[in-house]
């Protein structure tokens, strides 16, 4: 021990045995604390009452400080209602459910408990997608399978299948007398066979189509926009959501293609659109307008305005703060500027950016809105991280028109019409599309309504 003691005395500057003892105690205390901290870090934060309290309080403080309407709730009373359940949670799943229920009680349709995003995600390799044909459908008794949507870049779209087609036979099996229970089996067996022969009725015509099943990533193709010409002068674009990078660029490209085919009026089908990225919405709107288009309000004050501008061969959408500083921006190449007549289709299920877009176009007098009343779920959200690694979406701003018009009142269409019934679609009649054509062309009748 003497060599160790000597070396220690030299290390501590020769201050003597008392200093040596204090130094050794300090050294081993630091080692103990480091080990204890490591062990605590390995324990889930929610496992202890102190940890659950910390996460819970951080969640409440996040809403108090950042929710767009500080008077939306009595935040302390809101916290008290769920505090005991959160503290008594025995598993992580129970803890998440309490906080999810807590935020859902706000009923703003945007704020949401996400939890720890790494949980439940498989990292095992696997081939994406599943074998399929690429169309959405519903069964109509004594009629057949009615095609409601054909996904782009799939066997169904390549074969020329269309919305409103009625499939009456698959691989020689008759469907008109099938039941809800048997038609899915017939489709699955046809896909498994590797070759699918469809007999289809389209209005007064009967067609035969052959499809080879392929592996389809439905998560990707379901959000892609689609376009076609309805007649010599009317283009049609279906845009299911604004969720996904590149949506704005794709829409501008599709409009350019429709114009090349002779479109001087356009139907933008946003039915059931649940929203998505505000930046992509701005880029899409840039095809029809230029300049500021919406403002965001938080705690009674404007926090930014969205602005679209063309700059040479680029279209740029930016969020601009009250001081003129650009908060965020996105751009596309080769933007179009469509000046023709525009009709936009909506349903009661439109939400978020899927509501804001039609509201903006209607407020600025740029489009005729056709469809159903909507609820006005128009908040902007932001993601926040909590101490345990959980994620929560908080509605940090409410969107309104530049003139102050309240978007939370929802869309009141210029032409009120219910979405098409399955039986109407089966005879080739899509009511909102027909009413949009009537409005765009100033027709005295609704095309196809009585035929």
Topology summary:
Layout: H1 2-11, H2 17-42, H3 49-66, H4 75-87, H5 92-104, E1 112-115, E2 130-132, E3 135-140, E4 144-150, H6 155-159, E5 166-170, E6 173-174, H7 183-193, E7 196-202, E8 205-211, E9 214-216, H8 218-221, E10 226-229, E11 234-238, H9 247-260, E12 265-269, H10 278-285, E13 291-298, E14 301-311, E15 314-320, E16 326-333, E17 341-346, H11 353-363, E18 368-371, E19 379-385, E20 391-400, E21 415-416, H12 422-426, H13 431-441
Parallel strand pairs: 11-12, 12-17, 17-18, 18-21
Antiparallel strand pairs: 1-20, 2-9, 3-4, 4-5, 5-6, 5-7, 7-8, 10-11, 13-14, 13-20, 14-15, 15-16, 19-20
Question: What would your notes on this structure say?
Answer:
The protein is an alpha+beta fold and 451 residues long. It folds into 4 domains: 2-42; 63-107, no CATH class; 130-216, Pdz3 Domain (Roll), CATH 2.30.42; 222-441, Alpha-Beta Complex (2-enoyl-CoA Hydratase, Chain A, domain 1). 33% of the residues lie in helices and 27% in strands. Strands 1, 13, 14, 15, 16, 19 and 20 form a 7-stranded antiparallel sheet that branches. The longest helix is centred in the N-terminal third of the chain and has 26 residues, at 17-42. The chain is globular.
């Amino acid at each position: 021990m003497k060599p160790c003691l000597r070396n220690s005395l030299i290390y501590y500057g020769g201050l003597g045995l008392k200093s040596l003892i204090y130094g050794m105690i300090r050294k081993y205390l630091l080692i103990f604390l480091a080990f204890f901290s490591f062990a605590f870090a390995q324990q889930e934060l929610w496992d202890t009452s102190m940890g659950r309290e910390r996460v819970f309080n951080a969640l409440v403080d996040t809403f108090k400080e950042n929710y767009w309407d500080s008077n939306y709730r009595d935040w302390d009373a809101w916290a008290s209602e769920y505090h005991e359940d959160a503290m008594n949670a025995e598993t992580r799943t129970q803890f998440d459910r309490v906080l999810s229920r807590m935020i859902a009680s706000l009923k703003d349709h945007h704020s949401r408990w996400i939890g720890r995003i790494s949980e439940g995600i498989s990292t095992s390799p696997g081939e994406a997608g599943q074998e399929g044909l690429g169309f959405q459908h519903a069964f109509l008794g004594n009629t057949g399978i009615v095609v409601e949507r054909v996904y782009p870049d799939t066997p169904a779209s390549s074969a020329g299948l269309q919305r409103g087609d009625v499939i009456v036979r698959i691989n020689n099996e008759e469907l008109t007398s099938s039941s809800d229970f048997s038609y899915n089996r017939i489709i699955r067996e046809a896909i498994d066979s590797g070759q699918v022969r469809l007999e289809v009725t389209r209005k007064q015509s009967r067609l035969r189509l052959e499809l080879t099943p392929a592996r389809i990533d439905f998560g990707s193709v379901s959000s892609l926009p689609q376009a076609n010409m309805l007649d010599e002068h009317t283009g049609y674009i279906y845009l299911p959501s604004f969720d996904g990078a590149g949506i704005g660029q794709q829409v501008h490209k599709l409009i350019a293609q429709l114009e090349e085919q002779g479109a001087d009026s356009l139907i933008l089908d946003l039915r059931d659109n649940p929203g998505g990225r505000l930046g992509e919405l701005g880029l899409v709107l840039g095809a029809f307008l230029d300049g500021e288009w919406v403002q965001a309000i938080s705690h009674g004050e404007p926090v930014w305005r969205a602005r679209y501008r063309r700059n040479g061969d680029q279209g740029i959408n930016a969020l601009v703060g009250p001081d003129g500083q650009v908060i965020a921006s996105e751009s596309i190449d080769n933007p179009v500027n469509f000046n023709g007549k525009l009709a936009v289709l909506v349903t009661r299920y439109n939400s978020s950016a899927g509501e804001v877009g039609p509201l903006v176009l209607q407020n600025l007098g740029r489009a005729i809105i056709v469809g159903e009343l909507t609820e006005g779920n128009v908040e902007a959200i932001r993601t926040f991280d909590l101490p345990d690694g959980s994620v929560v979406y908080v509605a940090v701003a409410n969107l309104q028109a530049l003139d102050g018009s309240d978007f939370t009142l929802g869309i009141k269409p210029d032409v009120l019409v219910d979405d098409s019934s399955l039986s109407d679609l089966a005879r080739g009649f899509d009511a909102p599309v027909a009413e949009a054509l009537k409005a765009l062309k100033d027709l005295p009748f609704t095309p196809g309504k009585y035929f």
